[in-house]
Amino acid sequence: MKHLTSNITSAYIEAANRLRPKTKKRKIVAYVESYDDIFFWRSVLSEFEDEQTAFEVMLPSRKNLNRGKKTVLMNKLGESLGQCMIACVDADLDYLLQRQTPSSEKMLSSPYIIHTYAYSIESYQCYAPSLHSVCVMATLNDRNIFNFEEYLRQYSEIIYELFVWLIWIHRMGRFNDFSLNNFNNIVAVEQLNIYKPIEALEQVRRRVNRKLSWLQQNIKDAKGKLTALKQELSDLGLHKDNTYLFIQGHHLMENVVDAALTPVCTILRREREKDIKLLGRNNTQQMNNELACYSHSQFQPEQMLRRNTQYKDCETYQRLRSHIERFLKGNLISQSNESR
Question: What is the value of pTM for the model shown?
Fold first, then answer.
């Protein structure tokens, strides 16, 4: 019996040793802006974890409820960033402003501040090629009844010129001439009919054209300067067909994408329920059970949108990955130098 106990203990120790990492991982703390950001940045940083490196995603403070980009960057925490402590934040407009404002300078000057390159995490969650899959996750119906990619491509082309004006004006520090809120009000999609989306998009186009006309008449010193800015913005990843990725993320989600997503999901649910009722018309109890099962298996579109991770072929996401790779490569070089 004593021999058997000894064997069991030895087997337990051997199993525990196999579970223990062979080398001690270097933990890098990643501070993020809010609760919603934790899932996004965990899914991003997980790609880079290996036997040597692990990340822990955290909120900026354990002592109070302060959240947001300023909390992450503009206090003592921002001054403490380094090889074992990084900040992961939304780019907002700061990426495109290219150091022309204090917040842009702060974000772009540090190798330890990782930003989204697109406006925010919501921009990725609204990535056009992934939106049909979001509908499927929410409704469990794979019928494709709306072309999200074409919708957001046309939308982007409509707002592109006005967005370039917004960036030029904000680079000049003339925020009162054209605020972000003013831009958002102009480019909101209203009363979208998913069978005739062009009607709602034409309403946006008319508002955009009126504002462009006003800007051209009232801000004369921009003349001749926007062409060069367009090329610079193109080098940063902004193009006519993907402008939606660079506008305010919450606005994109609530006033552009959801304008199509919610009605599409509503139709798909009704279709699925209609199919169940048709198939179960001769067995009421079975039909009701199936309808209840289907109801319990559904999720709200917004829930699925905020858990969407199918954006990893997006061009701006590749820039984000490259940024993390540069940071980790710099870490390896620093560790190598320290060990000499």
Answer: 0.87
